[in-house]
Specification:
The protein has 5 helices and 8 strands. It is α+β, with helices and mostly antiparallel strands. The strands form 2 sheets. Strands 1-2-3-6-7 form a 5-stranded antiparallel sheet. It has a 3-stranded antiparallel sheet with strand order 4-5-8.
């Protein structure tokens, strides 16, 4: 098990356009993917891009919930992913990032997208995604192009500390659905009852 250090906002590697993976079957690529899994397990995270662990490669690892069959095979490795928006509709949502600890922000993303990628066995996969999954894929693939979520924000007043989630709390009070981890921030905020009901 190798737990990698996370590159933080300001590190030059997060501003670079990552290099394509020439050979997805190269054992070195599999080793990096395994390190990314170990790092996520250690952090309790679910999504990470290779530049965040100081590898300038077009590689993303994430884990999903248990499959409907009950078989636990949550890991997905995206090699050289390519995203194409399906339509022009965009929706706002709240995001966090391992490379920007302590903050969250409201970002507008394409609602629906099409993606192609290679597996570690060099098989081509295509899929369509909408909603939260589409937003997460855009967030992670942005890392491959040197883009962090604040660069996508239309209103920087909606960039706030996790300890003071005022705008996020207002959105939740008005019925917005958010990731459970963000709901937890608001639930734990001592100032919530002073400012918002619900």
């Amino acid at each position: 098990m190798t737990i990698r250090k996370i590159a933080l906002m300001g590190n030059p590697i997060l501003s670079r356009v990552a290099e394509p993976v020439d050979d997805p079957t190269d054992p070195a690529i599999s080793d990096i993917a395994e390190d990314m899994k170990d790092t996520l397990i250690d952090m309790g995270g679910s999504w990470i891009a290779a530049p965040q662990v100081f590898e300038s490669l077009r590689l993303v690892v994430y884990r999903e919930n248990l499959q409907p069959s009950g078989k636990a095979d949550p890991w997905v490795v995206l090699v050289n992913p390519v995203l194409t928006p399906r339509g022009e509709e965009m929706v706002p949502g709240w995001e966090r990032c391992h490379s920007i600890p302590g903050l969250h922000g409201k970002v507008v993303r394409y609602k629906s997208l099409h993606m192609t990628y290679r597996t570690l066995e060099d098989e081509e996969i295509t899929l369509d995604a909408t909603g939260v999954k589409a937003a997460l894929l855009q967030h992670e693939c942005d890392h491959l192009d040197g883009v962090l979520y604040p660069m996508r924000m239309r209103d920087l007043s909606k960039l706030e500390f996790n300890a003071e989630p005022g705008h996020l709390a207002r959105d939740i009070a008005e019925g917005a659905e958010v990731w459970p981890v963000l709901q937890d921030l608001v639930d734990a905020w001592p100032g919530r009852s002073r400012w918002f009901d619900g």
